[in-house]
Amino acid sequence: MFVFRADENTYLKHKRMKVYSLETNSIVERKWFLDLLTCMFGVGAWILVNSLYTQLPLLVQSAPEGWNLPSYLSIAIQIGNVGPLLYSAWRRKYGNRYDRPLTIAVLISGVTSVLLLAGLYDVTGVVFGQPHSVVLCALTFTMALVGCTSSVLFIPSLSRYPDIYLVTYMVGEGISGFVPSLVAIVQGVGTTTCRTVELPDGRTSEVKSTTDALFSSGPFFIGIGVIMCASTVSYLCLEYLPTCKREKIRIPSEDDQLRRNIGVGSTENRSHSLNVSLLAVQGAIVFFANGLLPSIQSFSCLPYGYMAYHFATNLSNIANPVACFIAYYTSRTSKTVIYMLCSICVVSTMYMLMTAFTSPSPPLRNSITGTILIVFMWVLFFGCASYVKLSIAAVLRNEGNRGLYLYGCITQIGSLSGALIGFYLINILQLLKSYEPC
């Protein structure tokens, strides 16, 4: 009988659609409706942040920050990490007794935020004497709270179900980047041209003329809000629907846990030999992938045209789940592959930084070759980086809980550091210069 590897503790027998779970030490029958609900629940984890990034090529055209907007939003997203910190303090005092209402509250706040964003994303306010997208930045923060908190709140809520559905949840997280990017590609992006106008004094001047995309960001965010509603309903079904509640499993007793730990006790011993080099690689990867590069992407891509920025942003988002899908079926714990892909990331990063710092006149700016190359480099980097991050997590998982804890700490520190440095370079030192077509 053909056996498909779902994860380290789960094996799916396709012919009878039954799975052996080490949590329950028994065969459980996989239910399609639980797969659907957990997948849809997983979609709601990061779809808000992912959808925001897909709209940047349109938002920068009208935002008062212009090309600096991504650096502001990166900071707002990183501040969203206050969510896990607050939850950790809450859990220390109250335990997990209130996880269900907290999860519902987080999901509802996400739905509310994105629907408000649909109508208010272009509202500006004056801060320190300068106009800023205050509503967009504020709602970006509340939307980021959903994604940042999902790792400590959403995933544990699945502990009452067989472990096979955690894999389905992770598939949903991958779809959360895939779907908004596909919609954004269909949406298209406005093209900017220059036209000559005559001033009242008889002189002439060139001004920008931007054609509209197929539809604006407002309807796009409404569509994302509908998906978030579906994710919220999916969670409510998992928690309250009788058909779903009958599929829940009992939490293993302390004796069960002891028996399981006897078989994997060596894992804790290996935790003292954590691979510091892999943690350093993870820190460097997320420094660029989650922090610095999203802040400078507009400077790197926009000189090649709004269409280049549009495809670089959305195809990079699609590269993430594709890379994770490939890693799912390959030897993702191979350190040789990890370091080889890191070399590719270094090359592509150097090229992207070079184009950003030479803006508004980067190499091959007025050629099709330059446009294709800049899009390819962005997609290549994020594809390789996604594979590397997943691979490092798979390696450190074998080092015990401490390995994954350090992995999470390095990820947050690296991401925040990259976003702060990007903001400092762009808005304080003003080392990067935007390209004006007219």
Automatic annotation (TrEMBL):
It is a multi-pass membrane protein. It is found in: Cell membrane. Its main location: membrane. It catalyses: riboflavin(in) = riboflavin(out). GO terms for cellular component: plasma membrane. One of its GO terms (molecular function) is riboflavin transmembrane transporter activity. Keywords: Cell membrane, Membrane, Transmembrane, Transmembrane helix, Transport. Plasma membrane transporter mediating the uptake by cells of the water soluble vitamin B2/riboflavin that plays a key role in biochemical oxidation-reduction reactions of the carbohydrate, lipid, and amino acid metabolism. This is Riboflavin transporter. The lineage of its organism: Eukaryota, Metazoa, Ecdysozoa, Arthropoda, Hexapoda.
